[in-house]
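Morning F.,

Quick status update on the modeling queue. The single chain you submitted on Monday has been processed. Sequence for confirmation:
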Amino acid sequence: MFHLIFGLPWLVVLVRFIQPLPWLWSAKAALAILLLLASQYHLFSRISSGSVFSPEFPRWLVIGFNLLFGAIILLAVLQIALDLVSLGLALVKGHWIAVPPVVRYAMGVTALVTAGIGVANAIRVPPLKSIEIAIPDLPPSFDGYRMLQLTDMHISRLFPRAWAEAVVGKANALAPDVIVITGDLIDGSLENRRDDVAPLAGLSARDGVIAIPGNHEYFFGYTGWMAHFASLGMTVLENAHVSVARDGGSITIAGVTDLSARANGLPGPDLAQALKGAPSDAPIILLDHQPREAQTAAAAGVALQLSGHTHGGMVIGLDRLVSGPNNGFVSGLYTVGGLQLYVNNGTGLWPGFALRLGRPSELTVITFRRKG
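Structure tokens below.
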């Protein structure tokens, strides 16, 4: 279905952009074929690996696909805008206005350059983002506690071992008290990704590395991946919690499975189970890959929920499309009743649409502060 849907922007580009160009038909046909192949990126991904979520091509080819694929979508948007402006002028002037070829050339260059910037933003090692969050009833010993959140790394052919090594090095250099990973660590089977995820074993923090699954883990052999993450030294929370103690005080870090679990015949998120036996006087930090159940967490007395999944909307404007399925939670810090929800833009990105414009990736250090 993906390849059919994303064939529509190519059709717009073919009919309204390529066809009017003053070129030889053979040159226009060559451009149309090249862009048609790029528009079918997800079909080729399915052929290469059996999944649109894990293109098993060389990295340069995955980057090239994303570059052209992004350019097609941006060019289709520009062309539709041009047609609307032309229609408005035609209604005012009483006749259709011819569009000079130079306008279409400028549109093509703009779309390609913008797509290139978007792909470069998507595949870089993320910059540091530091925020402070005040937590009610935080024990004095945890004032200044630093939690590093990684999420949506999507380790794959696009985000391979070298990228993972760079992220690990940058994360460790921050010397956080604890590292949490809120899902979608991988795209691909354990067989294909084993070497790429190996650097994650090097993540180091005083109170360890804690991870939960995202929806993508369920696409590629969930049970095997959870066991493998544990073998890399992570504490994997599947509707469970851990207590972190310091100088007579403690906090509870809980984690739930993803909402997509039940569709795969596996236990879905169970916050009550995750909090069973947790100290009643310790603030609760909840790791939940998807942010849309924040109201439920608020009702359960969770102080802070950390999520990902949305990638921040990826491109300014697309956040409106992402907002609905996620109950309005897309990027940044929200207040839901007595709960604070932080939705991370993501460390990486799904390789099927690797474009970031105005929604940067992030390595997020959250410093806890006492409230009041």
